[in-house]
Amino acid sequence: MVTLPDAPDSKSPATSSDEATGPGRVWRATGGTGRRLRALTRKEFVQLRRDRRTVLLMIGMPLVLLLIFGYGIRLSVNGIGAELVGHDSSFVRQALTQHDRFKVTSGIAPTESAARDDLLHGRVSVAVMVGPSGLPTSVLVDGSDAFVAQNSLEYLRSLVASPGANPVRTNVLYNPTLRSADFMVPAEVGMIMLWVGTVATAIGVVREREQGTLEQLMMTPIRKIELMIGKILPYSVLTLLDAVLITTLGLWLFRVPMRGNPFELLLFAVPYLIAALSIGLLVSTVAQNQRQAMQTAAFILLPQVLLSGAMFPLAAIPWGIRWVSQLLPLTYFTPISRGVFLKGLGFADLWPQVAVLSAMAVIFTGLAAIFFKSRLD
Questions:
Q1: Domains in the chain, start-ordered, CATH in brackets?
Q2: 253-271: pLDDT as tens digits
């Protein structure tokens, strides 16, 4: 006769072995909530200490933005370029240069046609017609930069309201109503191309390296320079399509005028696009993962948007920081885009900006090729 073991009493307390079974019981046995949180927090700090690039970006980005917004960007614009037309006048010069609001050229534009040409090519932002009596008769304002134009009109009120002054007629050219869409959409074309080209290229290359497919491609007969070009070509097509889409929507949805040749704008965008893609490739060579690639790209792109004149005029940036603007591709593409959209400018007018962008494209591409090849090695 076989004796079966007694069934366990459901009311009896659990044994020590029962307490060790199940993940929940083991987790509770190791300590309370405070101990577990301390362990997890310590683990995260250890990971941050190992990921020094992320820590530097987390600390560096707020400092850069603080300097840009606190010192580099002002809501009031001084030193606006202005000229007198027809006759010289010490009264008008004194009224314009009061409080350093305008920077008046020493020469006198002979005719209104010459003054309009200066406004068209951005040599000045304001032209004051002066009569034989030395008093202003009318004012021309470049409205393509709405921020500067609004400040100019506000400053000109003191001139118009001066005692003894004749009624002064003010004409705003290229953007008579100072619509924000006419001012922002041309700049957004450059900003979107910069963001898409840089971020997409950086993340795409880093993702390939994380997945190991980049090393697999290196085992094929393809050369490194061919691999680099092949990686950025799809992103260049995507970025150009984005530029066409934004331009089309701006024309159709926001009724932004296109006074120049849109195909010329697309042609001018090529060296700018190459520079943006090369920056993205440079970011991919220093980033270890996709998160670092995104953070590094943002660290590079935000100053470009804020210091390039796309959102805030360069005249509002102090010289101590304005030199940084001269190193940014968006600084040169923004006047190209606005010039084609609002002023109908072409290559004969914009070739200096196109030449600088072409030089930047060559330099950035060369640096990207060097660092990309060294990273693959």
A1: 80-173 (3.40.190), 180-376 (no CATH)
A2: 999 999 999 999 999 999 9
